[in-house]
What we know:
Order of helices and strands: EHEHEHEHEHHEHHHEEH
CATH architecture: 3-Layer(aba) Sandwich
CATH topology: Rossmann fold
Number of domains: 1
Structural class: alpha/beta
CATH class: Alpha Beta
Number of strands: 8
Number of helices: 10
Strand content: 5-15%
Strand order of the largest sheet: 3-2-1-4-5-6-7-8
Largest sheet: 8 strands, mixed
CATH superfamily: NAD(P)-binding Rossmann-like Domain
Helix content: 40-55%
Oligomer: single chain
Amino acid sequence: MGICDGRVxxxxxxxxxxxxxxxxxxxxEGAKVVVNDLGASLQGEGVDLSPAQEVVNEIVAAGGExxxxxxxxxxxxxxxxxxxxAIDTFGGLDTVVTNAxxxxxxxxxxxxxxxxxxxxxxxxxxTFCPVKRAVEYWRAESKAGNxxxxxIITTSSGAGLMGSIAQTNYAAAKAGIATFTINIAAxxxxxxxxxxxxxxxxxxxxxxxxxxxxxxPVEDGFDAMDPANISPIVxxxxxxQSSHVTGRVFECAGGELSVAxxxxxxxxxDKGAKWxxxxxxxxxxxxxxxxxxxxxxxxT
Length: 300
């Protein structure tokens, strides 16, 4: 018996890297897994379902239950088909993990509209569509008197929380995912659904090229960048045990786990009247001097 025994879980981008590790970890804890992956390139081009099939084969060989799904999660109808495949095959849906993503890394002065749109579509729209489709199902179940312990786990990034040089599109998308998650968490509790996000640091196609030395596998000892290190918190958040945790963003790397503090209201100066632009310089300087220093943007 695992902590997700009998739960039905959708994982997007589950053919490789973090998504693959999540799929295997959920299956090991008794979940029935829908392995969604188009098998596109890192830039979002092409289709190849064989990586997703390999994950399914591994789960089934270990005695678990899983199916392949090749729907485009950034497409509204595709996301609906994805959710329906879980319901039709396994009789319901309990957890959605949005992990799929691409990168089009360029310095902002060289970034094209296509670079922007492609990344925003896969990350942000590709989070919204499957989550919204799942929530529609959970809301209908709740109205029918069959409230499920719905769990949403999205994937943000340190780039989204702190910024990252040459990744303005990716950082903006990941920041949007973090805020999306805390916002829906405030709305969905009444139907038994929680929403949390992770900002992981681990080996993947996205990080192997950008941080080759940091992400290189180790020959001996603890491999801190193994994507399997991230999956335990994802599995726990996707289980019924996490019902009291919602609207949080967890940074995770190796064996380290923390809750990101996020934006907080800073100290205010109130004149009690309209400011004159010429008098604001010293006021702003004072506020900045008394505020915590911002975390540095990655790559600076």
